[in-house]
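User: Quick sanity check before I run a bigger batch. Here is a single chain. Can you write out its predicted 3D structure?
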Amino acid sequence: MTQTQQKIGFQHVGSFLRPDALKQARAAFANGQITADDLTAVEDTAITTLVAQQVAAGLDVVTDGEFRRSYWHLDNFWGFDGVARIKFGEGYQFAHEETRDDSAHLVGPLGFDATTHPLIREFKFLKAVADRYGVAAKVTLPSPAQFFAELVRGKNATRVREFYAQETDFHAAIQQVYHDEILALYAAGARTIQLDDCTWGMLVDPHFGALMAGHGVSVADLKTLYLTLNNGALADLPADLVINTHVCRGNYHSDWAATGGYDLVADELLGQENVASYFLEYDSDRAGGFAPLAKVLGDKRVVLGLITTKTGELEDKQTIIDRIYEAAQYLPLDRLWLSMQCGFASTEEGNVLTEAQQWEKLALVREILTQVWGDEA
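Assistant: Done. Predicted structure follows.
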């Protein structure tokens, strides 16, 4: 897919801290105290307020904060035909804590229906609100590779073999449902879609790489497969649809899951994935150095995630600027940009900082964009 390179603009990776009213409504719905329509009304109000806050903060591209989701990834998986929400029995193991144990497994052949998948309706609402302010609306999706990783995670893998005797048919089905979903979002007005993808961020960690590969599968084979799944879903899309990707090493309640630089996956991820821009986590030593950025080909751009969402402490502005120019040794400054390292609430629990600190972080991003890139910002 050939994409027309566009101005990135001031944008956040995706999720925002859930306001208290929304948290309370979700808990009330879970306890049967309010209806689904009641919850939707609260979500609508919260998202409308959030868009106004983003516009006031100067963002050119807005999201719905992922306010209707429990997880950054699983909610999208549960919307596909042939997929069920389950309790896995154990959560994802992060460095210091374990997540909730929700997961997704197959209960039939994969399919996509734009009339039933919730994300299409959700995006239409966001787009209508964004249009009132004259700003672009971005939708965030977990990547096809991330979907694959969940469906073959541990005991989930046995379900795959019940419905797909051939692995190639399973891989093709993942690509197809994602392709269909992306086209449905395009038809709903989406022109910027971001694929959130922790699979690459896990492969760079020797522990996680071995865990994800499993018995008889090499990390090298997984890199090829992830690339095939993602690029396959992105084939033959409209030229005015911008597809970006965001890569991190886990973001749950201010905790992280993996560590390792991009060197191991640079050839595939940075050299061959068919996206316009890479939003890359770079807020700690766990992400390694900038040398892999030299692998980014053509006119693709990298958005440096130098400012963390994991703590409320505000970074030193000059330190961040110095790191931007350090990265410019490997990729020209006109192909670099700045944003947060990740979302503020990849799950509804949210990271450990306040809403005020959240907006202070974004204000710092805006200041640095203006100082380093001037009129382009």
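The chain has a mean pLDDT of 95.

User: Great, the batch can go ahead then.
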